[in-house]
Amino acid sequence: MEEVPIIEMKGIVKIYPDGTKALKGVDFSVKKGEIHGLLGENGAGKTTLMKILSGMLHPTEGKIFVNGKEVRFKSPADALANGIGMVHQHFTLVDVFDGLHNIILGMEGHGLFSKIDVEKAKEKLQKLMDELNFQVPLDVPVEKLPVGVQQRIEILKTLYRDVDVLILDEPTAVLTPIEVKELFEVLRKLKSQGKTIIFISHKLREVMEITDRVTVLRKGELIGTVNTRETTPKELAKMMVGREVVLKIEKPPKEAGKPVLEVKDLWVKGDRGEDAVKGLTFEVRAGEIFGIAGVEGNGQTELIEAISGLRKVEKGKVILNGKDITGRPPRELYDLGMAHIPEDRIHMGLVIEMSVAENSILGLHWRKAFRGPLGLIRWDKVKEHAAKLVRDFEVSVPSIEAPAKSLSGGNQQKLIVAREVSKEPEFIIASQPTRGVDVASTEYIRNYLIKLRNENKAVLLVSADLDEVLQLSDRMAIIYEGKFVGIVKPEEVTEEQIGLMMGGIKNES
Amino acid sequence: MRVDIKGFTKPLVESLVAIVIGILVGAIILAFSGYSPAEAYIALFNGALGSKYGLAMTLSSATPIILTALTFGIGARTGLFNIGGEGTVYFGAIMAIILTNLWGNVLMGLFGGILAGMAWMAIPAILKVLRGVNEVVSTIMLNWMAYFIALYIVLQKIPNPEDPNKTLAVPVSARFPIIMKGTELSWAFAISVIAALITYYILWHTELGYELRVSGYNERAARYGGINPKKAIIWSFLLGGIMSGLAGATEVMGRPPSYAISQGMANIYGYGFDGIGVSLVGRNHPLGIIFSGIFFGMLRAGATSMQIEAGVPLEMVKVVQGVIVVTIAIPGLLDLLKKVVRR
Amino acid sequence: MIEAVISTLIGALTAMVPLVLTSVGATVSERAGVVNIGYEGIILMSAFFGAIFAEITGNPWIGLIGGAFVGMLLGMLHGFITVYLKGDHVIPGIGVNLLALGVVAFGITAYWGTAGQHQVPTNVRVAPIINTPYGSLSPMVLITIAIAILTHWVLFRTPLGLRIRAVGENPEAADALGINVERYRFLATVYGAMLAGLGGAFMSVDWLGTVTKQLSAGRGFIALANMVFSGWNPLRALLGGFIFGFFDNLSVWVRTNPEIQRIVPWQFVATLPYLVTLIIVAGIIGKVRPPKADGKPYKRE
What we know:
Chain A is of the alpha/beta class.
């Protein structure tokens, strides 16, 4: 007799208020007592699906069944009451509380005004930890603990609330290899106790090692569910990356020139003090597009910030046209011929409350062309400049005095590209240049990047959109945990190989 | 002039609504306390606007608070909460008195105000840039320290030998000429308006102003755009200091009959705080501040008439001011009202 | 000599009441993440209304409760604007301070007909529990100490306190666990303002026995300074309040002592609480850290 799945999600659709379709009708079912992997690239929809299951988000359409009964979650508390708990990628811990208090918060066990029975809670937790065979210091402020231990506290937090289904979102992203092994031990122990685990990841090797079954999502759709024992990393990679109709871009062959940007043994730390970039060495030459592909969170952001002067370089060098620019501030870099299309157009690339005209000179506002006597700005020149940008790049604006927030995403991005190009750079960084951008603007921007490359500029492209990197790059690298897994030419590598590399597995035949 | 019309009407209406609510609540309190609101407000408006004398007094009352409002407004535009104008005013006044008594001319007096203002406001600036000290905390502490230090200087260092209730007076050669005889309106008012216009030009027509405003909206975008946020912070405080320093200087140089600081600093006390309200109602925009300052000046000027003719204690206007500021703190005021009205 | 010590002690203990109450209240509010700089105004208004309640009922204790009640109302106003309407935390406080100046100055003349100052009749003032020739001690001193200790206990040993602190450090974490962030923040704000109100009423109905428009004299801000100085801890605020109260008294003593005046002017002693706070906040002497989500309105995605 077919057992009723412990979790069943039917026809889940999620459309965000800004129109993005994150999930396009996904069915997902999980058997009791299994470790089920949820695999996919960035934007595939894995986290969104699980946020819906754990009560953080509401589905636009679709139903959820727990043990065959339909449920509707209004908040994470509802999901918890139904035995479903999620450990997020970004921890929700109160830094200054110790492990014990983080775990019992909200479930202290008795009236609001009575003393918290620390001893009793400790006993209960110790029992739990003994059962699972992992220990966690309960009386040290969480902020002082290593990330792996913090994660265990997050796991304990859900287990303390008697969850039957534990969802883990990219749990190994912040762990060392040894901590990963220890985590897997815990997961196997939990499974033996009858718990069900959903394991979200983009790391193929780990998924192969720990899961019983794997479901692959791609661009908001279900691709398929397989038994882990009956599949291979290659097959999973193919499902993840797939083959699809792609806009063909004209790219004449070009001989690249001398190196414009040279990065030598670069080490950069992330926001939590961990090493995000671990000794990268590469160069970008004149007349070429060097692409960096990879799932977000593998160090790309920190790399770009370090090169563009927005983040400290711990070790190593960045050289532009032969000049050492390591650690120099953005203003100097712009004056030395660098331009930067940032990955966050709303919080960095533009000041959305300001007008299109005012945004058109961000990063070039000190140039003589716009300056009058006494440090005054020549707004007439600025308006001319803005009008030209808008015209040349076909940016659709109500007027150049309109605030930047009134433009669509695609037009905002085109405005930024237009502005950066107007700096007449020799080297340009394009970070996630077409994310959230409409098809027409996407095509425009991609063609423009090719144009720059044809004009002998050096372009560094960073994108989570693999197709984009494959089409546009002359050479490309896949970044994984702060290192390059390989530097290849797009035409010389198969999609399976790329999928493998993105999942951390080096070229294997 | 570059004005965004659509973005201009909503804040203007919100300020007007806050003012109306302030006046209404004031009316309720008046009625509750046994006064006639109609009589009180008529006396107020008549006193402030109904005669040449009233108008002159309105503008004269507006003079210092326009300047202190600019301090808060410049800070706000840079993303800072600079409420240190109060203490800066004291030092501006003191420095003006000292310098004009050494060199009896108007320029030295103004220079004194500017110098003292910049020096005193450099402190919270440095604390923020070097140690990350929150400027709300630092400026409040510094205001109080300024009060006591200034009090000491006023009582012990520059008292008037002939009148122990006052400091030395600003010499005649350094006083602002009176525009209208018999009133307190002096050319100091022109300084206020000029300062506001200059502030407007700096903020919207110079490279520095552009950098200040970008920093105020979004620090990440500012750094990405090649702007040094520390530079922006320091300039914001220095400019703000100049404004409040000038407020103190113009008060002693332009306020007859004493042209001095009196009785425990009572005549220069409170301008900094009033300036915050003026700036908020003026939406932190120099041009709005001019009009808002004149409105608050009107309240101040009309208050005495209200007291004399309607018997209402003049502190009533402070009640109205307080309600206006609390009301304007409500975000999305207009949208909220629309919701209430629809019910 | 003994007289000087005892009278100084009593003076400091009395002066510390409004400071400690306000600091403890402010601590709870900020621990939950809500900044309120309007205590100056709350103290002033509660002093005024507290005196009125005492005189109408003939009972000083009703006056004290009335003051706390007024504080509570002002706390609800602040909480409504900052917590529910997600408004700015600093501006309403500025408004309340301005409002208080106006209401009290206006009210003194309107209600009692005197200009600027009103003496609260002795029969409606709180009776001291210890009377010495060098000063008398009010029961409020003991009540204040009790409140500080109790608040500390609740804040650090009970689920209520745990949730209040969670909501001020990481509201997202608390929200994810089903804790109503807004409710806890609102209650913390009201509690803080209520204690400040009690402190204000103490000044008119007990300690100074007058109502003037300058009554609070910066004590609301000194209490905030004490809160920072004490690292957002009610027990330390008790100690800190005593120290600040001591200096409050000291500056008065210096002022009335001409020989000392020659060495150190009283005004410089008066700046000490503010100077010390500034030094601490600048991290020069030790580091204190406000609750992480302090002053930031919380909106769920």
